[in-house]
Design a protein that fits this description.
The chain is α/β, with parallel strands linked by helices and 247 residues long. 46% of the residues lie in helices and 16% in strands. Helix 6 packs antiparallel against helix 7. The chain is globular.
Length: 247
């Protein structure tokens, strides 16, 4: 089912838009989404198995297109399968896509960049990508590459681990005693507030055409973050410049 997505402005490939009246990039709560069933798979598996999972995912998405408005892009580590899956899902009638195995992609910066850039080039401009799992420090770079939204699942996951999320770092509260007697519920609430702040921060930087500054600042937080930015600059400078405002 097609969702109404309007693009208001760009800052590089990052897009400020409106989805059902809400500003993007934005957070999505899985409990309020109608996601088509899919055949999940591990990231590093044989291509034959990944192909089978893509076929099953497409079958289930087609069967549920009248009831669901989001679908999942499967294909494991194979970019050609991801593109095939995404384009077929568009043909079926979806324009909102969750990227499967996103936690694994964060550990493979080259695959991450190649996959998102390729998807953005192949998909319709009115389709939007949702990253299912990301630490806040990685979110500016992901939006800069072209991601339009994030699930709030990571807030719950890190609260379960007793980890506190900030815009630049995730703290293990068993090691860093930043708060006393912080319940899991309160920790999850804090983590969600962090995600909300980072989204507002990203939106403000896109409006001010300064997202690149934020991306470079946050790129130093993890080796994977800085590696992804270096790969993006080296391989896809023309992609970055296509929608960059000239002064």
């Amino acid at each position: 089912m097609i969702r109404k997505f309007e693009i208001k402005s760009h800052d590089g490939p990052a897009r400020l838009g409106k989805l059902d009246g809400e500003l993007t990039p934005r957070l999505f709560n899985r409990n309020t989404m109608k996601i088509a069933p899919c055949e999940g798979s591990s990231y590093n598996i044989d291509k034959e198995i990944a192909e089978m999972n893509v076929r099953e995912t497409l079958k289930k998405a087609k069967e549920n297109v009248e009831e669901c408005d989001f679908a999942v892009i499967q294909g494991s580590k194979y970019i050609d399968l991801r593109v095939k899956c995404a384009k077929k899902l568009e043909e079926i009638g979806y324009n909102g896509f969750l990227i499967a195995n996103s936690d694994e992609l964060l550990l493979h910066p080259r695959d991450l960049v190649d996959m998102i850039v390729t998807l953005k080039k192949e998909l319709s401009p009115t389709s939007f990508l949702i990253f299912t799992f990301a630490e806040p420090s990685f979110m500016p770079l992901l939006c800069y590459i072209g991601v339009d939204g994030f699930l709030t699942d990571s807030a719950n996951y890190y609260s379960y681990l007793n980890d506190l999320m900030t815009a630049t770092k995730t703290y293990d509260l068993d090691e860093y005693a930043l708060f006393d007697d912080l319940t899991r519920e309160k920790l999850e609430e804090y983590n969600i507030h962090t995600l909300e702040f980072v989204i507002r921060e990203i939106q403000a930087h896109i409006k001010n055409k300064s997202l690149r500054n934020l991306v470079e600042e946050r790129s130093t937080t993890t080796p994977q973050n800085i590696s992804a930015l270096k790969i993006l600059d080296k391989k896809y400078m023309s992609y970055l410049l296509e929608n960059t405002q000239l002064y």
